[in-house]
Amino acid sequence: MSLFTPVEMAPRDPILGLNEAFNADPRKEKINLGVGVYFDEDGKIPLLKAVARAEEFRQQAMAPRGYLPIEGIAAYDNAVQKLLFGQDSDVIQQQRIVTAQSIGGTGALKLGADFLKTLDTSGIVAISNPSWENHRALFTNAGYEVQDYRYYEPSTNGLDFLGMLEDLQALPPSSVVILHACCHNPTGVDLTVENWHEIIKIIQTKQHIPFLDIAYQGFGQGIEEDAAAVRLFAESGMVFFVSSSFSKSFSFYGERVGALSIVTQTTEEAQRVLSQVKRVIRTNYSNPPTHGATIVNMVLNNPELNALWQEELASMRKRIQQMRTLMVQQLKNKGANKDFGFIIEQHGMFSYTGLTAAQVERLREEFAIYAVSTGRICVAALNMKNIDAVTDAIVEVCK
Ligand code: PLP
């Protein structure tokens, strides 16, 4: 009998499990659409030129690696604010935002969850149905009751907006509402600006606490366009949380660079909130790592590197959009028995294709094409070399 005898095996992460099965598959022409990262036309994770150049400068500088401040690099935190809230944002000018560098977007969510736990909320966190699956686990682990709000409507492959409004209305007042600011993961189905106005009204009336998760800024319609929801909330005068990530927009997954931003009501409130967020950080990991945020900071604050990054981000976005269009065209030309046009309307890296679990299984067994059993595919894993095989197979399994 040891301390660990009663420890049970935790369930495997379904997406990592899928990757393991893919790696073990001996078939040569196999295709993995189950991943959650951007692949370029050659099927590789790109190293952005802007990142490589910043890394060269950093290498040449031979800078010592002291500790960072608890809330991270100040210039980085400021650059994050401008990216999210806009260059001329009132909330920035009024010094009402607190921003802390975090360990990726996940780290920002966890910092926010832990700080919120010290405040007066209903104790309920509401997430979209479906959502990025770590939302549920993270907030449950942080001590909240997690509930779903309606979001995706399978019959239209679109949004169940009325269901969403009803569910937000039905939550107890002061519940925390997690909202995907753009490029909803896993569905790709986003809210329009008009939808956001209505959501804001309900959240305001019910005194809910909005927590915007923006992990794909720049992958939807553009850097500024994708931040529309963040800016609408800022204009509303509400206090709210934003978790943001550079994992995707800098193709910087393993560097773990993100930020938690909290919009408060006054400068003085911001100072008190920051002091508490610092306490959460200090007691978890003391202070954040230097490398990734230093590079992001160099790129964002250097006009030339920033312009290069924006170009590279735009080309990732455009390649995904091209793949969406091509996929839909090919499915139509090949006589698919349903209209997949909705895939063009979706935003970001993912698509809920509407394929059933049984169809996804056939894709894997008969065609060595791997997707998530919910029908989610990573559009960024498509390229000119594999798209024909993918659309052929989808037409076949839909027959
Ligand atoms: N939020 C959403 C909606 C995501 O899809 C992801 C990553 O897949 C994250 C947060 C976490 O991002 P990071 O890898 O920066 O922790």
UniProtKB/TrEMBL annotation:
Transmembrane regions: none
Alphabetical list of InterPro entries matching this protein: Aminotransferase_I/II_large (IPR004839), Asp_trans (IPR000796), NHTrfase_class1_PyrdxlP-BS (IPR004838), PyrdxlP-dep_Trfase (IPR015424), PyrdxlP-dep_Trfase_major (IPR015421), PyrdxlP-dep_Trfase_small (IPR015422)
Domain Aminotransferase class I/classII large: from-to ranges: 29-394
GO molecular function (one): transaminase activity
Keyword Transferase: yes
Known cofactor(s): pyridoxal 5'-phosphate
EC number: 2.6.1.-
Keywords from the named record: Aminotransferase, Pyridoxal phosphate, Transferase
Enzyme class: transferase
Subunit structure: Homodimer.
Protein family (similarity comment): Belongs to the class-I pyridoxal-phosphate-dependent aminotransferase family.
Protein name: Aminotransferase
Protein source organism: Thiopseudomonas acetoxidans
Origin organism lineage: Bacteria, Pseudomonadati, Pseudomonadota, Gammaproteobacteria, Pseudomonadales
